Amino acid sequence: MSQTAPRSGPRRAPTMADVAQRVGVSHQTVSRVLSNHPNVRESTRADVLRAIEELGYRRNSSARALVTRRTLTLGVVACNPTLFGPASMLFGLEEAARDEGFMVSAVTLRRYSAKALSDAIDHLSEWGVEGIVVIVPHRAAVAALAELRLPFPVVTVEGGHSLPIPGVSVDQDLGARLVTSHLLNAGHRTVWHVAGPSDWLEAEARVRGWRGTLEDAGVEVPPPLVGDWTPLSGYRAGQELAGRVAGNGARRRSLDVTAVFVANDQMALGVLRAFREAGLSVPGQVAIAGFDDIPEAEFFAPPLTTVRQDFAAVGQASIRLLVSRLESSGMPDDERVVIEPRLIIRRSSTPS
Q: Does the pLDDT at position 236 exceed 90?
């Protein structure tokens, strides 16, 4: 009579005791290795790490939190993560947190309000995060954050300097000045601007830098056109601007368009299409520059002059600022880190 072999159950996850047994050391020695304790012989440390790798042991974060009262988890609250800027900032934050030994729990919002922010912070608090980074690109988000009582350290990204909370930002004003000066130095009488949404702090700062550069140069400041960051809004702005290009209308306008600074690269793509459909040469008749340096910008036709934001540096600075607040209660509440952008010159603004 044949016998059926007993069915094996699910494989048990290896424990710290399994690692200790494999190496022939105590449970406490394995714990010291995992905690990077200095009082462990290097040969023993190597044996323990090899056994961890061979067994596939993974430390239980819940158990660790009970012992150390630390979860090594940080929270991030972001809005509009489908846009290049917020998405790149979120990625930079997650990468920087991993480099510092933290995991990230993120909450994304469709729109900011005091209620939405409060719910997000409550959710992250329940997950046991030690602190949070809030990406606050909207003026409404700054106002909403100011209303909240925060249960743990918080750092803002792109939140301006109006809150008594540590923050990291890219110098958007400087970026706009760099690109506007570049276009003026190329010989243009003035520079037109396709701005981002008026409730975005980044758009506001880029308008301020553009306008200030024109005023400092003593040239006429054209009325800005306003988009919503999308290629479609840039396309519509481009259609309006195309009618102002010299020789492209029934009569010459008082202030022709020869140079355009667009507040982001996606809208610049729409402007380029509108100009191409109108039969305008870029940069022969009109020079164009954008902002962000999205990965596709150098493959536009023609390749796009733009302003590059270092999102990795933003992520690193934000996480380091937050970690420093976790480790020291004496950090100032108004500490600021400002990252300088770079102008990337390509053929859309300079004839080959």
A: yes
Position 286 scores a pLDDT of 96
**How far apart are alpha carbons 202 and 113 in whole angstroms?**
19
Phi, psi at 319, each rounded to 5°: -70, -40
Q: Residue 24 and residue 44: Cα distance in Å, rounded? A: 10
With 70 as the cut, is the pLDDT of residue 4 above it? Answer: no
CA angle 318, 70, 331 (to 5 degrees): 40
Q: Is the dihedral of CA 193, 196, 199, 205 positive or negative?
A: negative
pTM of the model: 0.77
Query: Strands 154-157 and 167-170: what pairing?
Result: parallel
The two structure tokens encoding residue 152: 């743990």
Give yes or no for a contact between 143 and 308, defined as CB atoms under 8 angstroms apart. Answer: no
Q: Which amino acid is residue 110, in one-letter code?
A: R
Whole-angstrom distance, CA of residue 216 vs CA of residue 348: 25
Compute the radius of gyration of the chain from its Cα atoms: 27
Average pLDDT rounded to a whole number, residues 274-299 = 96
Compute the distance between CA of residue 58 and CA of residue 214 in angstroms, rounded to an integer: 59
Q: Is the dihedral of CA 194, 195, 196, 199 positive or negative?
A: negative
Q: Where are the alpha helices (DSSP H) in 147-264?
A: 172-185, 201-217, 231-242
Is the pLDDT higher at 242 or at 66? 242
Largest CA distance in the chain: 103
From 34-48, 133-147, 263-277, the region with the lowest mean pLDDT: 34-48
